[in-house]
Amino acid sequence: MSETFDAYVIDRGARGALEAGLMRRDLRELGSTGVLMRVCFSSLNYKDALAARGAAGVVERFPHVPGIDAAGFLAHDPAARPVLVTGYGLGTELWGGYGDYVRVPPEWIHPLPEGLTMREAMILGTAGFTAALSVDALLRAGLDPGRGEILVTGASGGVGSIAVMLLAELGFAVVAQTRKPAQEAYLRGLGAAGILRRLPEDETTAGKALSKARFAGAIDTVGGEVLARVLKEIGYGGAVATCGMAAGTRFEGSVFPFILRGVQLLGIDSVQCPRSVRETLWTRLATTWKPAGLAAIVREIDRRDLGPAIDEMLAGRRTGRTLVALHPDDARPPS
Ligand SMILES: NC(=O)c1ccc[n+]([C@@H]2O[C@H](COP(=O)([O-])OP(=O)(O)OC[C@H]3O[C@@H](n4cnc5c(N)ncnc54)[C@H](OP(=O)(O)O)[C@@H]3O)[C@@H](O)[C@H]2O)c1
Questions:
Q1: How many Cα neighbours within 13 Å face the side chain of 76?
Q2: Total domains in the fold of the chain
């Protein structure tokens, strides 16, 4: 095995400005503890875009290799079952999936579930796993398709697109909220029954603690004031799974949705989520919940094209999922 590998590296240049690009690195930079994994596919998540721009609180030190998702095989046993890593400290605390290799603690590694190829697992990636966590949280909160419509915010994004597909395939009437009018047909194709450009916060409801109860529940991938508005629109006994922060981390609201309508606010974390939950939901994503339309939501790119894709994502202009193909020819079906 070569002593070097290629990786999409971000680093501070001589004048302190952030530089990014594909570089050859020494394998010893991955450290000596943990399991070495050869990466075939990764993906682009919002957190990767933040990491690639050196966002404080995401990247701990430079140089750094982003990529919170990786699918590939164990370098010491390439004939063994393919594996995947999503979340934990991949691409944040440790160098991530935009390198030909990652070295990670063994407990971060999961066998690729039967029913998913590496490519499919990375089309889903952290976004798909987060969508599955969110849907599971709504089900566990007691929602079922008979209770009414479910709103998905940031619907054209990665988590949003997969949440729309999962909910629609489970029989829920999904209303997709998007800022992209051009993506209406895309969202209807994923199963959305209705489209909202934005929540109807007008002068009559702006200052009020509650609005008309329109939805039985919601998956909010956007955060900030969007989450505040969503909470006002949830009907009695409803629930909101909150996972995102593209529109901000703070929101202002009142306790009334909780104490007058019994609404539940469900926090979603894909990073430190326990192993048993991961296994359950990845198995579901590979079987009963496997979305039929994965091909419709994916764009495949090379690591050299990450820069423009990251810019587009941070501007909120990207749609669906971005698959990063490192070594697609090395990927084999699960044995
Ligand atoms: N909790 C967790 O464990 C977890 C895991 C994964 C992701 N996340 C978070 O979930 C969110 C979505 O992640 P992703 O990978 O799906 O990102 P993404 O593909 O970029 O999707 C984000 C979507 O949010 C909407 N949006 C972006 N900026 C906005 C703004 N300023 N105001 C309102 N809407 C905005 C856009 O959808 P429209 O144009 O359709 O409105 C955009 O496509 C991110 O905040 C990410 O950090 C959290």
A1: 5
A2: 2
Mean pLDDT of the residues in the chain? 95
| CATH code, domain carrying 25 | 3.90.180.10
Say which amino acid occupies 62: F
298 and 176 in a single domain? The answer is no
Tell me what pLDDT residue 243 has: 98
Query: Are residues 172 and 85 part of one domain?
Result: no
Identify the residues whose C-beta falls under 6 Å from ligand 1. 45-47, 126-127, 130, 154-160, 178-180, 221-222, 226, 243-247, 268-271, 313, 316, 318
For 225-245, the pLDDT digits (tens) are 999 999 999 999 999 999 999
Tokens 């909470």 label which residue? 231
Low-confidence ranges of the chain (pLDDT < 70): 199-206, 332-335
Residue 194 · residue 333 · CB < 8 Å: no
From 186, 187, 221, mutation site for ligand 1 pocket: most ligand atoms within 8 A of C-beta? 221
